[in-house]
Design brief:
The complex is a heterodimer of chains A (about 350) and B (about 625). With about 350 residues, chain A is mostly helical. Chain A is about 40% helix and about 0% strand. The radius of gyration of chain A is 20 Å and the shape is globular. In chain B, β4 and β5 form a beta hairpin. The chains are: A mainly alpha (about 350), B alpha+beta (about 625).
Amino acid sequence: VSVKQLLSTSWAVVLFAGLCSPVAAVELDEPIRPLRADLTLDARKIELGRKLFVDTRLSQDDAVACVSCHDFSRGGADPRPRSIGVRGEVGGANAPSVFNSGLNFRQTWNGSAGSLEEFLERLIKNPKVFDSNWADVVGKLRRDASLPVEFESVYAEGITSKTAIDAIATFVRSLTTPSRFDRYLRGDAGAISTEELQGYARFKSYGCVACHQGVNVGGNMFQKFGVMGDYFAQRGNITPADLGRYNVTKRESDKFVFKVPSLRNVELTAPYFHDGSAPTLEAAVEIMFRYQLGRVAPTEDKTLIVKFLNTLTGEHQPRLASDQRNEPDRLAATRAKP
Amino acid sequence: MMIARLLRALSVIGVVAALIVVLIFLYTKTSSVDAEKKVRVEGQLKQLKQLDAEWNVDVLKSRMEINKSYDPLTSPLPILTELEERLADEVRTLNQPFTEKALSELKAVVAEKVDLVDQFKAQNAVLKNSLRYVPTAVDDLRAEIRADRRTAHGISEGLDILGARANQLLTDVLKYNLLPDAAAAESIEASLKAMENANRDYPPNIAASVRNVVIHTRIVLRQRLIESEILTKISAAPITQAIDQLGQVFDRDFHATLAESDRYRRYLLAYSSFLLALLAYIGARLVRSYRIIARVNKDLKHVNETLEQRVRERTEELSKALHELKESETHLVQSEKMASLGQMVAGVAHEINTPLSYLRSSLETVESRLSETVREFIGTMVALIASMRSGEVTDDEIAERFSVASTLADSLDEFAVMDEIQGLLRDGVHGVDEISKIVVNLKNFSRLDRSRVAKCTVDECLESTLQLAKSVVKARKIKKLYAGTTPISCSPSQLNQVFLNLITNAVQATADDDGAITVVTRMHGQDHVAVDVIDNGIGIAESVKPKIFDPFFTTKEVGKGTGLGLAIAYKIVEEHGGAIKVHSKEGMGTKFRVILPVKGVDDAGASPETSGAEQMAIAA
């Protein structure tokens, strides 16, 4: 039974239990669901994945790590409008947050990967990201002084592309960020302020919640960017990445269709959208009103909505360094590289 | 040879490998069917079906907004993927193309449905928003109209109509949402057009509200249609059919595989029986071979044992025969010796006879002389002396008697009787000497009185042999050329036998009157002496020459020669470490050359057989 199988089985079980257990009666029945607190992940695998997450040996030029684009101080997202990969290559999109990404129904902006594993399998070969391959990466990792032994103590087969991917995916799945709003959803009425609650009401009434719903406040569907207006015509300079889901399905109706991003930690993940075009949350909300909702709203409503969005910020942001060991030097070195 | 063996070994290995490969093939063919696979696959298909059904329900719940988020629509995805993977694993091991095709069809249908659900979510979200917004927009419009009515006058009638139309529109839209049909859509579109047409007459704020209502109503119309299409497609997605199809094909393929496995099991059984029979045959052959080997071994062992016995017996026989042969050889050597001696005895007897006869005559003469004259003189002398001593006799008588005595003495002196006697006695002594010489030679020849090995010269040996052989040699001229050789260590009696044989042969090869025999001795190098016995006889024929040293070969008449003479001579010389050679020319003569080492034989080196034979010969 693979880890994946276990996870998916536990998904189903947890979902079922969540719907039927007496706790559900206390929980509020809202379009947004609280984060589950009962992740069953192997802590040793998480630690191995944590190490690989900051390991620049994943990239062909030993300069780029996962963490290069997923800044843990920025909600696990990239503060640069376009992410920069191996040899300073500028990517097509702004890296979305890695936090809670295990809860997304598919990975990447256009949903090209069905799972984190599939995503990692391909990301390593992406010429603008790592431009490597798992055989090379595994070869480099196997020459490490301690990593092979550590892997062997967790995975019988030691370091392989499969175990390395599994470790990283497990680590990423562990990066959930329970927020004040989750507490509110669980029945803690005092967890958010009245204004924030009003913001949530606006969020629902203006229709934001039509797409940003579920446990990840998004991340469970595709939607066209520009339902109520042509965002790209307005913005101009259309890039291949702007075609979104079309790049996967080649279906005309999928042009400019993207995975609806999760709004968890949205307060920290500026700039916004796949093109990183909105530098602030207010600007992003403005664009959403205009092109997605086709609505005009008073500024105070938008302000309330932003206030609500801030309640989605994880109360404890995941840390890159493991509890046992701090690796500031290594992180600093990784960050320093372009 | 090597290559042939190698090829043979390779072909045997090849045959064995082929047999094993066939066995493995049949085994995998029979063992590849997992009986529980059917149960598992059926379970998975059932689970898939149920999941799909629940998914459909969730789509409808989302449509009805019973589901407030789309999570229930995405949560089946990982389970779907996992089920598909497990099914793929099961189908892969079944290795049946139709099942694989059915599975890929199912996967395609599922992927299509996943895509439809994704579209549903996107379209449903847009519809939901506009649908939710239309009442608000209509409310907003009505509020604008009410506000405008308080301030503006004149076009209130038109605004009333607008308000009523908006109300009607809202009702129609909500109705349309519940029961979308083309007629309702047309009437809604007609009122939307009417509102748009009248819009330029309205104040800007109202016009904006109208536009809002129109846009979102149109979106509802459009999205409701799209959603209906998607929902129709979702409900029509032939997942159940694909699952059933896969189930049927799998069932058929599984049973086919089972049947095939069953067939292969029978093959395997037959093949195993064949292999067993083959093994039994090989085993039987091995046992038989082993038995044969065991029997042969036993026979061999037996033969070995009896062989030892036989060898022992044969050895005994042989040693007995050898013993007998040695004995007979000894006898032969002895008889040859005796024959040689026999030949000599006549000569020796003659040799002795001659001095004996003149010894006898001398002695007889002496006897006669002494008896007559000497006895008379002695008597006279005695009478004279007696008469003189008595004194009774006259002088005359004395004178007479003296004159008689004197006369007798004169006669004795005159006839030199004493000289004669002395000569006769001397002759007698000479005869005795001659005889004793012959005896000495005889003794020398046989050396019965000496140690077997002695130091002597070949000259001495030849001389004593020639002395003995005198009677044989007769009138033949003997020429002796002795070089005064170094004494050699040898068995003189044996060497004498050799020389006697050679001389006898020379004598026999030559005529009595003009035969000439030359014996030569000389040093042959420092360590060897050479003895040549040369005759001018008839010589030896070339054809005969190689055989002359063979035992029992003789050119003499039957009964005259033993045929052993030269063979024994050859053997004796060989035992002395020497060599005997012959040079002969028919009609010209023959030369035998004997070469002997000075060191020769010593007591220790003498072969025991020879000494034994010699001793026996002596004893005989």
